[in-house]
Amino acid sequence: MRFKGTLSSVLLFGLLNPVVSNPQLSGNGFVESRPSSTQNVTYIPNTYIVELEHTPSTKAASLFSQRLGGRVKYHVRKEFNNAKFFYGLSLTVTDGTSQKSDLLEISGVKNVWPVRLVPRPEAFVAAMPNLPSNNILPHIKGNSDVNRPLKMAGVDKLHEKGIKGKGVKIGIIDTGVDYLHPSLGGGFGPGYKISFGYDLVGDDYTGTNTPVPDDDPLVTCAIGGHGTHVAGIIGMTDAQNQGFGLVGVAPEATIGMYRVFGCSENSGDDVIMAAMQQAAEDGVDLITMSLGSLSYWEQASPYVSLAESIVESGVAIIAALGNDGDLGPYAVSAPGLAPEVLAVGSVENEVYPTVYKAQNNIGGSLEYISVFPFIADKPLTVFQAGSGLDFPVTELQAGGCDTRVWTAAQKAITDGANTAVLIYLTKSCSLSAYSPELSALNVTTVIYYTDDPDIPVLLPEPDTVGQFTVLFLSYEQSQQIVSEIEKLATGKEYTLLFNSSTIQDSLNSAGHAIDYFSSIGPTVEMTLKPQLSSPGGNILSTYPRSAGGYAVLSGTSMAAPFTAGVYALVKSQRPDLSIAETISFLQSTATPMKALDMDIVSSVTQQGSGLINAYAAVAADSQISPSQLSLLDSPKPAKQTITIKNTSKKLKTYSISHSGASYIRTFNNFTAGSDQVFVKFTNVHEAKYATAKFSKSKLSLQPGKSAKIEVQFTAPDEPQPYSEPIYSGHIRIATDSSSYVVPYLGVPYSRSDTEYIARNTTAWVGNDRPYVGSDSTSPGVVNIGNYSILGSDGSVPDDINVPIVNFIIVQPSNLIRLEIVPVNTTFVPTYYGFDPSVKFDVADVDLPLQEGFLGVPNYGIMAQWGIGHIPPGISVASLLGWPYPNTVTGFILLYPFLMHENGTGFDLTSGAFRPLLRVLRYGANGTSADDYESWLGPIMNVKTS
User: Fold this and answer.
1) Can you tell me which family this protein belongs to (predicted)?
2) Catalytic residue (one of 174, 402, 515, 931)
């Protein structure tokens, strides 16, 4: 069993973090070139969620114990005994002997998922209060349009009519809530705004230790403020002489909080599932969840089954899709990826809601962004990071990431307490990187500036501000201060006097567009995500009183509760609608948005149907179904049918048309000839559209009548499927008084009919792939290569020459195998990586030949990556993780520890073999050799110490 303790999927991202980590494995590794998420996806060791066939009158844990018969030692984490939702348990195997495959073999087990640590929800960016921690809330006066997000979505018009969500019960699953905040009602229980809920974990829960639940979801720790912010977006109401004058989307809804995070670290899938089930059992109308972990594939998620059951029971689920927009399409989070969950994208606020003025010493003023005003007794001298250097200043120096910046600052700053340091806002380093230097200078005030008008101000995470006062400048104000400092006469200082507490707003140049951080759908299985979008960027809401009471946060975490509030408004006026009908009204009345600064509609993969419109959803007098279309992967998708129903009291005439949206590629560099193919998703919008032919383009309906129209789409031609393009658009249905949309998306080719293993790649990666190479044989050998690797004891040979099998998988596959087979194997692959007519007289490795997989004898497996429904004959214990197209770009054979088909490890001996790469085609069941594309590589003659 050496392999399980020593071999892992070591994903190499340069400076980025791994997407997958398995604490049981370490050693050899896949090479990974796709940028990672802002979060890691980590499994809790030896811990699983087990779904069971329901047995009436028997608790799940008892049933499992009976079936197991003492064969495995384990302890139960959670029980799920309500078969209406989910019947099973979560458990930790305490002796480490059992794997997922063993559990699946137990009678009555339907499915098994490893339990993942779900990262605590944090806003993508966060502006924290610059006030000392206390429970006294301020009263901020001025003329800021702090409730602008309500206007963006038509919520203000419903509030004017007295529609505020009364009678609707919303369950929030999050970090807990400071319900003592006056704007959230000041109490907990019947009669209060936050009237029900539960703490499933306690303050000290980290995701891996034992939860300590209680019946009070109160949280006062600042790091638990996310749930308080979410609750405020739905239900806050500032008192007349307190706060900012904020109003939530549905301030008369009844709110419950289910706390699933402690005051630090993470939670587990099973805890979150338990909260979902408890909320449903408590009779909520909808659940909103601003949390999740990166998943890509629906089949990888235990939430799919539970969400389906909860929605079938009449409880809607709304979830944030995630903040991984920089990863490109398919990088969606669970539970938002579940088909029955309404997943939400984020739209940037049209204004920065908390802006204040400082007076400069050249007769003007400067506007800065901060939750609360900053007041100083005397003017502060502004020192710009990078000043005083005798070489050209780059982003590195302007952002404070170069120690020479602070050496120069020591010479220039004589009174740190009365100095503000102006720093360029960059991802290269953060405040924590240079906070010691600031402290050494006695500087406590930092002003951040930016130079990109299309990206909203990036603000630091809540726990990075520390003892500093941190202020931010919009693009326009950044340009102003930099210009003014540049024009100063030699020796003249630039100062700012902070003496005004009057709030105002300023236009956000990135406003009313999809936030660049908002995750991009669909799921790998092509479920349309997000379904719609809501305001989520730069949202001002409540925060724990101990942390100032208010914060500006950004993320799909903010867009999800906004959507939940709108759902409550619609449901309060249309209580008899089903969940699907309510969602249909929300989607069909949304407003498609254009890409920022472009005359092209943003891809449906980014915005869904568009920006939510609460007023239009309530006022709608026509019903459209289905509310979205997934055209799957085909150049000519199946004909689609849309039903239009006139729910008004008068005759209506409908005009039907088609509007294409941006065509996007997961990897644009495939078409650019760049050798940086997988470094980063590039959000390029192409005006490349499908065509749509309608059976009718106009029709009239009497009140209460319905009609069907058929739509035949034809996908745009695509000669480069390697770039993984997605086309999309909207069907538009208009009357004389209103308009409706049905979003659609598709892949313009058949995944199963295209190539999976990229070849002839010289034009775009600089060499041909696949190949086997090393430092001394790059870019690869043709027929045979000689290598030397570490010994089983870790010894390093003098002639070490580690081989790398280089390949690129360019389509979704739920099983990738890299086997070692005899030099003279009779297997005929899809592609040869050598000249099969050339024969070599070399000694095979001295290992017993195994039966192998699907009739191909092998010595063992270098690595295997898979997910979900694995074909028979594959040991789940041997899987390193799950594959996503283009992520795996090679395998490094560093140690001699490999694996047999049954999951047991063995030591590789010196000798020759060939690598065999097999990739399961999308949609195939994997039981036939024809289901795989394959590549047989050159001879690898490996010496082990």
Assistant:
1) Belongs to the peptidase S8 family.
2) 174
